[in-house]
Amino acid sequence: MTIEQLPTQGELRKLVGLVDHDDSVDPFPVLGWDALIWVVGNATQTAHFLQSAFGMRLEAYSGPETGNRDHKSFVLRSGAARFVIKGAVDPDSPLISHHDRHGDGIVDIALEVPDVDRCVAWAREHGARVEVEPHDETDEFGTVRSAALGIYGDTRHTLVDRSRYDGPYLPGYIVRESVLQPRPGRPKRLFQAIDHVVGNVELGRMDEWVEFYRRVMGFTNMAEFVGDDIATDYSALMSKVVANGNHRVKFPLNEPAVAKKRSQIDEYLDFYRGPGVQHIALATNDILATVDAMRLEGVEFLTAPDAYYEDPELRERIGHVRVPVEELQSRAILVDRDEDGYLLQIFTKPIGDRPTVFFELIERHGSLGFGKGNFKALFEAIEREQEARGNL
Ligand SMILES: [Fe+2]
After folding, report:
1. pTM for the complete prediction?
2. How far apart are CA 157 and CA 112, in angstroms?
3. At residue 288, does pLDDT exceed 70?
4. Which fold has domain 193-388?
């Protein structure tokens, strides 16, 4: 069994911008991301796509061959990031109705916590909806304790303590390795960690969810706070960011804002049939190589106009970055700088059939932000796509 090497704490600090934090005074300590759990229409093919195009490696599996007659579930990893991809096998599986409503998407942002019971007790006391009570699951590899809290829409946070577990994922899963071999010369992995996961919520609900994360989970508002200034001529949105103590887990939350035309958030809410996860930002230490490798596999990214790179104000603002601007321009990689440093980022087109979930790639160089300076250029690019879909 090949064990996927985890980034060290030092590497993570640089990759996702960690800050110091004392867990002992935290009422709801969170160690990090446990997994992003997806429900899709065809898990077999989505798992293949994430291996071929995103360079993830299969490490565990559950399905009819292991006694799970309801669905197939593929556990994929890249560095510290774990995705679990589920698709119904049984035509009466509850996953069918979820997929019927939402299309491909994330059902569960599972978080690793050191003490499930303490977190659930605090969350319940502060108004959370406990969807699954704390319980143990055991097999020959040990015991996992978990519980789940409901969040926006049909999304939840499963809280997982796997400190007494040594198996490939959860009880019921078996070790399974990728059959697919990476193209020769491709970087060993295309991303190393999850940086942030963005939720889209309904108009007027953003502050409610910011408050939920603050009150129920002890998260704090991050310095990057964006008011109603994220607007193009046509569409607009509001966004605020909450993070756990050490910023390992960051949740930007968007709501649509009123503008001349339909916001990209409205489009999402229509096609996802309610609030849900909009995008997942993947941290890479070499965004150029990652983008090149993904393009070679057919991943489509949003474009940026040449004017973006030729804008003297932008050139002045971004100053010196690790590669010539032309290298970024030829790949449509965006750059933003703040008082702490800079970041490079790029966004894929939606990865499924509905205009809902997409990915971001992010390479941080000190900046703890989310690319606020790029929002206008980015939204204009999204609107070009939205227009082409007839949804603007
Ligand atoms: Fe993002």
Report:
1. 0.94
2. 10
3. yes
4. 2,3-Dihydroxybiphenyl 1,2-Dioxygenase; domain 1 (3.10.180)
